[in-house]
Amino acid sequence: MNSDAVSRRSLLQALAATIGAAALTLDWAAIALATHGSHAPQLGDEAKLSFLSTAEAADIEAVAAQIIPTDDTPGAREAGVVYFIDRALTTFLRQLASGYRAQVAEFQAVCREQHPGIASFASLTSAQQIDHLRAVDHTPFFDTTRLLTLLGMFSLPAYGGNRGGVGWKLIGFEDRHFFQPPFGYYDRGYPGFVVDRAKLP
């Protein structure tokens, strides 16, 4: 594995670890109840939008793709993060929906104002997108989109994101029916995770 891949994986692990701190204001008990009872289907390639407009989804997907870009490994676009966001805003994160839609509208208006003649954030070049995001990375829209992108990248694929488990693969998480340590490459050498096979069923 090359050093770039290790660096990217380390970064993604660090990003994933920040989810809890970034999401302290959410009602996680209600979210857990909603997700447990919703029996979400695997959306796969046939996913459709139910909350976001096509234009909103294109801009949000472009932002997510800058937060977790595609290089030699899949990013937020391949993981279908925008479909997770769309589904979350109509179900277990619906308390964020109206506020987030207003944030998206403000983000789009500022983008059009600062880039006359450009139809949308999604139509900017990658360099222009990065420059614009640096100017708005302190806004509620960016904070919320970053959180939703991380959740969509590493959540259960059944909820629309992490398509094909690509997010789990990036951090070395191994999806198994039965879990016992080590849980992935990152703790395989940890001496505390010695399995006493005599006690296994």
Question: What is shown here, in short?
Answer:
The protein has 201 residues and is mainly alpha-helical.
Q: Calculate Rg over CA atoms.
A: 18 Å
Mean pLDDT, all residues: 79
Secondary structure: number of strands = 0
Largest sheet: none
Q: Which structural class do the helices and strands define?
A: mainly alpha
Helical run tally: 9
Query: How many structural domains does the protein architecture include?
Result: 1
Q: How would you spell out the order of helices and strands?
A: HHHHHHHHH
Low-confidence stretches: 18-22, 33-45
From the spread of the alpha carbons, the general shape counts as elongated
Span of the ends, CA to CA: 35 Å
- Strand content bin: under 5%
- The level of helicity is 40-55%
Report on the structure:
- The chain is mainly alpha-helical.
- The protein has one domain.
- 51% of the residues lie in helices and 0% in strands.
- It has nine helices and no strands.
- Helix 4 packs across helix 5 (81-88) and helix 5 packs across helix 8 (140-154).
- The radius of gyration is 18 Å and the shape is elongated.
- The relative contact order is 0.15.
- The model is unreliable at 18-22 and 33-45 (pLDDT under 50).
